[in-house]
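Reviewers of the previous submission asked for a worked example of the structure-prediction workflow described in the proposal, so we include one complete record here. The input consisted solely of the amino acid sequence. No template or homolog information was supplied to the procedure at any stage.
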Amino acid sequence: MKILLKKFVFSSVVGLVLTAHFSEDCYKFRDDLIEKNFKSNFIGCSINEKGSIVALNISNLTELIQNNVLTFPSSLMELTVEDSNIEQSVVDEISKLSNLEKLSLIRTTSNKSLDFKPIKKLSKLSSLYISGSYGNYTVKQYVNPTYLRYFTNIKNFEANEYIFSQEAIYAVSSLTNLEELTFNKCGFDEDLDTDSFGDLTKLKAFNMVGTTQYCKDVIDVYGRNFCPLDEIPESIFTIEGLKKLIYNDQKELDINALEDIGELTQLEYLDLANIDLKEIPSGIKQLKKLKYL
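From that input alone, the workflow returned the following structure tokens.
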């Protein structure tokens, strides 16, 4: 099914932007929020070829639900929630979106007491993206591992600008249907046990892209405070079906584990850019299916 063919975006600065054709459903959705004095909560909207809303970008979703001013379209396939404290009412409403395939949580917070079990009902949900980035004003923010364990159906998980504790590593490793795992500018506690990554037996792509430079609890606009995962998890090399491995732009990285890279006999794509690699690991010669290096 083709989606996102037409996109509607509202901005208080640039006014209305509509690409392709007029979108009655998006206009109506936006106008309903304006009429109820929640204009700033609407960020974006996309439709399919039938004109039905398939993607929404909403700010402070909790506020809209608490004030009973929002009705999600049944056709919704992608939902982005920004700048919101996730409460139980939000979890309950999202869990009703039976066609939801992708959920993005950007600059959101939640506590460990919430019941995320209803999320398991979303059988079509295959992708989860979370971001804690505030640009230069980013501070050290840990992933809440409690809710991660309930996204059991997802095949793609990406985290941006978050810190991972041991509990969070275990939570990610429990998502055994994952086919792609991406850490984009993330940080990690010291001395983590990453053996559990080996439980992700369906994984086809493991991407470690950059490291966060905001590992302090206070704002430091200059950054340069790194807390990387300082070694490549040896457990990655036990995942027989892995086809793509990205490990680039890392700080203080122990690359000894790369000696085992020859074990990844299905590997087709390998990116080791911007790491202190003095020589090419000998195991690369064993990667007969490698197409990109």
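Residues 1-104+121-125 form one domain. We consider this example representative of the routine output the project will generate in years two and three.
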